[in-house]
Write a structure and sequence with these properties.
Elements (H helix, E strand, L loop, with lengths): L2 E5 L4 H12 L3 E6 L17 E5 L5 H9 L5 E4 L6 H6 L1 H22 L3 E7 L24 H16 L7 E7 L1 E3 L10 H10 L4 E4 L4 E6 H13 L2 H4 L2 E5 L5 E3 H9 L6 E4 L23 H9 L10 H19 L2
Parallel strand pairs: 1-2, 1-4, 2-3, 4-5, 5-6, 6-10, 7-9, 8-12
Antiparallel strand pairs: 9-11
The protein binds nicotinamide-adenine-dinucleotide.
């Protein structure tokens, strides 16, 4: 049984990922400083294949103990100060956590010989696009416009280009589309979740930049992406970067509201002008869970078959999850 370490596993993305890893037969250790509490872990607490260690990744001595006392086959690194506003407000902590400690950890994993490392990066690395009608792919220029994205880019560059490549080590970066959907540790600061909650609670939406394009991806597909990398041959994923999302899952904010409104009609108004259009086309060429005709051959090489994983569609998900959003929103009363 492979043993996977997930840092930041008590968070929005991680708490769903832990469950999926356990379901798929992995043994899982979560390290987290429980910045947002640990309720998201309660129902897996007694799973015999699950272990939790409360530890701050910035406490290198304590983290060294975690590494000395365990043997891991892979690490999925999620622990971070997440999002532009949080990084702006806690810039020193963000530098320390998202860059210095993440770099220190990567060096440490290589030194002790953990074979696989998967990093949670972001489509924000691409920044604003000169031509809003074009698409970006993994080879597009990176132009981060926030500290959050700058630190992601800096670490990615280090991991992919600056460390001495070692054939026993397989680091991969996944540039995720903007996440949404239900999770045991709910985040309502994410656009789809925020809009759905506010419409569910009958509030008026004031939307800035209604024509602003972004790619979206359900939090469950984040888990699929991580597990796909763990299962892929090393020569396909080592020292490689993949966009995660689906070409058909690009939406403007106006389109999001229209999708959500199909579920419940309330008032909303658009406001402000579109500061920039960003339209990305994540294609994740080598990984078999994304849509797109060009995937077929690569998929054969990866998994020996052309069957590909289903990508969740935003409109269908909103329909099926709407009532749960309402329950979560009312429970959290935010
Ligand atoms: N679309 C995107 O671009 C996108 C979207 C969401 C998340 N992400 C990435 O995925 C990862 C997880 O994001 P999330 O939405 O689950 O965020 P989150 O804030 O819900 O989770 C982060 C977790 O990390 C933990 N953590 C923070 N600092 C820590 C530290 N110093 N030591 C130990 N644990 C620490 C927190 O307690 C929390 O449980 C992040 O790296 C984030 O950048 C990318």
């Amino acid at each position: 049984m492979e043993h996977v370490l997930v840092t930041g596993g008590a968070g929005y993305v991680g708490s769903g990922l832990l469950r999926e890893l356990l379901f798929q037969g992995y043994s899982v250790t979560c390290v987290d400083n429980l910045m947002f509490g640990g309720e998201s872990l309660l129902d897996i607490w007694h799973n015999e294949n699950f272990n939790f260690i409360k530890c701050d990744v910035n406490d290198w001595a304590a983290f060294n103990d975690v590494l000395s006392n365990n043997k891991f086959d892979a690490v999925i690194h999620l622990a971070a100060i997440v999002g532009d506003p949080a990084c702006r407000m806690q810039s020193e902590l963000a530098e320390q956590t998202n860059w210095e400690s993440t770099k220190w950890l990567l060096d440490k994993y290589m030194e002790i010989g953990i074979p696989k490392f998967v990093f949670a990066s972001t489509c924000s690395n691409y920044g604003k696009m000169d031509d809003p009608e074009s698409y970006v792919d993994e080879d597009s220029v990176l132009a981060p416009v926030s500290l959050y994205a700058e630190l992601k880019v800096k670490f990615e560059q280090y991991m992919l280009n600056e460390i001495d490549k070692n054939s026993n080590f397989s680091p991969t970066s996944l540039r995720f589309s903007t996440v949404y959907g239900l999770s045991p540790r709910m985040r309502f600061d994410l656009t789809v979740n925020e809009f759905t909650k506010d419409l569910a609670l009958g509030r008026e939406l004031i939307i800035f930049g209604e024509k602003f394009w972004r790619p979206y991806c359900h939090v469950k597909d984040f888990s699929n992406a991580f597990i796909t990398v763990l299962r892929s041959p090393k020569d396909k994923v080592a020292y490689n970067v993949f966009n995660v999302g689906d070409t058909s899952e690009n939406y403007t904010k106006q389109m999001l509201v229209e999708e959500i409104q199909k579920e419940k009609i309330t008032t909303y108004s658009f406001n402000g002008s579109s500061l920039c259009h960003m339209r990305t086309m994540p294609h994740g060429i080598d990984i078999g869970f994304l849509k797109g005709a060009m995937l077929e051959d690569k998929l054969k090489q990866l998994h020996g078959e052309t069957k590909r994983m289903r990508v969740l569609s935003l409109s269908k998900l909103i329909e099926s999850e709407f009532d749960y959003y309402l329950v979560q929103a009312l429970t959290l009363n935010k």
